[in-house]
Each structure stands twice: as C-alpha cells, then as structure tokens.
Amino acid sequence: MRLLPSLLVLLLLAPGAALAQGDSRLAFLGRQLQQGKDPRTRSQAALVLGATEDPEAVALLCAGLKDASELVRAAAAKSLAKLMEPSALGCLQAHKGEADAAVKEAVSDAVGALKAYQERPPRIYVAMDGLKDRTGKLPADLVKATEARLRSRLMRRGARLAPAKESKAAAKGALKKLGVPGYRITPEIQATESGGLRVAIVCMTYPDLSLMGQVEVNAAGAGPADLLKALVPKAVEEAEETFEWSSET
Fold it and tell me: pTM to 2 decimals?
C-alpha cells in the first residue's frame, strides 16, 4: 500500500480580495437576470452566469427560460449548455416546445450538448462519499452546495461518478466496461487553527479500498461560502496531481 504525502495550499486573502466577491457576484447576476428592465441587460447576465462553472447558476438560468424576451430565453439556453451541468436537462427538455424558432434551436442544441457531455468517455471512475462538515458550524445548504461543486468539478476533470451504494461486483463490472481506473474519495470540511477552512480528501482505490493518501487545501480571510467556493477546484486539482489521475487515461 502506497501512502502519498498530503499537500497543502494556503490562500491568505486580504479584505476585499477577489475571493470574497464570489457569492456576491452570483447573487448580483441573478438579480440582473430576474429584475433587469432591459432584455439586453438580462441576456448579458445570463451569458455571464454560463461562464461561472457554478452548479448554483442552473436554477437561475432555468428561470431565465421563462423570460418574456426571446433574447433572454435564448441566452439562458446557450448558457446552460456552456455551464455543462446535466442537472439542467430537465428544465431544458420542459421547454423543447418553445414557440420562438431561435430559442427552440438554442434549447435543442443545449439538450444535445449536455447529453453528449454525459456520455463522453471518462478518464476515471469515482465513488464519492458525502461531504462531511467536521466544523459542525456550517449551514446544511452550504455543505450541500459545496458537495455539488465537488461532484461538478470531478466531472469536468473527466470523472464518471459511481451510483450510491454500488456493490463491489457492480463496480468491477463498470470498471471493466469503461476500461478506466477507479477511486473512492472521502471529502471533509475542517477548521484550521488560523480560523479558516480546510477541504481534505482521502483517496482509496475502488472497489478494493486500498488507501492511497490524503490531500488538503486551506484558505482564510473571507466568509465560509467564499472560502469553500475557492477551495473546491484546488482540492480536486491537488487530488488529480497527487494521485496521478491524469496519467492513467
């Protein structure tokens, strides 16, 4: 059994740093999309939301599909395609009967893009345990949103996520069919001595569950929501590099 050393990334942020602007930016864009008086303003907000790579933008953009302006509806559909979140398929398919030809085409293109994204050949197969809040102080909805971001980031890095409570036999069958390596990861949110937060990921082989090691990324200097939003991509990148996911394609 090989135990890889954990890696530490420390992000010390001064007040007003870009990290602290994360959630407020998403909220601002959501307000612009919902309340902007000019359709051009609303459509621009939709397009920017599509570039956020944030699963929380899905609900905002799905709501945008109901906008009175076809310009905004088309922008929302295009942004849902760019966002690459399969959870958007439901709301897109509900609008396949769109009356406006341009919007209907954008919706159809988005559905096709998301289905292709789901079906693309994976590089790795990952069974992810539920995210644990070891601080015991974070709101449940924040923990849930952070877990969704972890899953989304893993998929963006080429992971196929295993179904919950998958049997060992089923896992071996899936791995044989896909021809990729399997991993099980256990993520946690922990408090740091400096008052910040840490995201730790323990990685094992899957389904044999041989321990490979742990990675940790820390951040301080902003609110919990902003810290976790910044830590998620760093944690996945560190795990990918440390456990050499990218080399096993």
Answer: 0.83
Q: Rounded distance, CA 179 to CA 53, Å?
A: 28
Give the number of other CB atoms < 10 A from CB of residue 120. 11
Side-chain-side CA neighbours of residue 246 (13 Å): 9
171-228 pLDDT tens trace: 999 999 999 999 999 999 999 999 999 999 999 999 999 999 999 999 999 999 999 9
In which element (H, E) is residue 9 found?
strand 8-12
DSSP one-letter string for 112-179? HHHHHHHHSPPSEEEEEPPPEESSS-S-HHHHHHHHHHHHHHHHHTTEEEPPTT--HHHHHHHHHHHT
Contact of 201 with 129, CB cutoff 8 Å: no
Beta carbons within 8 Å of 80's beta carbon, 6+ residues apart: 50, 58, 61, 62, 88, 91, 92, 110, 114
Task: Please identify which residue in the block is written with the tokens 């049997």.
Answer: 167
CA distance 34 to 87: 20
3-state helix, strand, coil split of the chain in percent (to 5) is 50, 20, 30
Q: Is 180 exposed, middle or buried (0-12, 13-18, 19+ CB in 10 A)?
A: buried
Pull the structure tokens for residue 17: 């740093």
